[in-house]
Known about the structure:
Layout (H helix, E strand, L loop, with lengths): L5 E4 L3 H12 L4 E4 L3 H8 L10 H7 L4 E4 L10 E4 L14 H11 L7 E4 L19 E4 L8 H6 L4 E5 L8 H8 L5 E5 H32 L3 H8 L21 H16 L4 H14 L1 H6 L8 E4 L14 H7 L6 E4 L12 E2 L3 H5 L4 E4 L11 H7 L4 E3 L7 H6 L3 E3 L10
Parallel strand pairs: 1-2, 1-4, 2-3, 4-5, 5-6, 7-8, 9-10, 9-12, 10-11, 12-13, 13-14
Antiparallel strand pairs: 6-7
Helix pairs in contact: 1-3, 7-9, 7-10, 9-10
Amino acid sequence: MSKPVVGFAGxxxxxLNSAAAAAARGFPVLGYHDDPALIERLRRHDLPVxxxxxxxxxxxxxxxxxxTADAAELSRCDIVYIAAxxxxxxxxxxxxxxxxxxIDTVAGVLRDDAVMVVLCQVPPxxxxxxxxxxxxxxxxxxxxLIFGVAMQRALHPERVIIGLAEPxxxxxxxxxxxxxxxxCPLFPMRYESAELAxxxxxxxxxxxxxxxxxxxxxxEAVGADWSEIAPALxxxxxxxxxxxxxxxxxxxxxxxxxxxRTIISLGGSHGTDTGVVEAWMNNSAHRKDWLWxxxxxxxxxxxIAVLGLAYKENTHSTKNSPSxxxxxxxxxxxxxxxxxxxxxxxxxxxxxxDSALACAEGADVLVIATPWPQFRELTIADLARxxxxxxxxxxxxxxxxxxxxxxxxxxxxxxxPPLIPA
Length: 422
């Protein structure tokens, strides 16, 4: 028996990685987007997003991947995922209008025996409110997208959380066949539970981030080193070896803040207490300004080099980037910037560089704002050779702080007091 044909509507970050993963698991895949120019790029394997492993996965499975700008072609699919990225505005509010329009488009061409799966993140109550597709053929599946490791997680999901109108009715046969190919635990539940499960996962992550950031700041003040404490916490069974306990510069990207805002809004509507959520938001805003609080003690006319513009490594996204927040404070100071993926043009007031070392040349202060793996190739000796000053702001510990101090640098990082030469 032939394998089900799987369609993905929305060839943005979520849809591309999900489509590539399904093709890699041996299924014929049709990727749809209403932009013919984008479809032509995809047919040439000119991808609009940066994601490690995505290019190689698409190239290796090209014979099973077809791209189209004609929605009618989705009628040959047994399963169609609504897989477009959900845009968020500067207030971390989702714009669901394009998702609703995409659902209506797909519903108009969906076969009577085919299944629609809403993969993009939506608030509780969204899926059950859809009327264009019968609920026995409508599924909500929690997406696992994390920028920088999206391809890996799409190919090897930890589990699949499935929202159904009536969980006791079981899964449609062809959809079950698709999920079986990924060989991971399945958690069927009612629509609203699955929609809230995604937010719940992000809340646990935010709680860990907030714990790490709060106590790392205390460590900086009292002379402790948070990097010594976190491994001990992970041996506690109540926390676990995979707990996210690395301090960072607040909550970046768009999805986590969107989920926090969603629960604050629901709390306001239903009279539930969301004080802790507002505290997390405040903690994130405070920690995100760490770079500026650290830098503003430096002499006013210092020449500054900033490495990294993306909000984290292995992505082109700058959504809520701590680096851009820092650079907004520096419009009146000479700044050079470099990022392996993001063009310097996103910061009109700064001067771009061709490499990390070229960016550092002549600088009094070097800020490593994004922990790109390439930056770990920098050596203290090279920085001492090209920099005019001796200040390193290195929140993610890309460099060896003790080597830096031995070479005459002051070294500032998260989770411990700065190291200053005697």
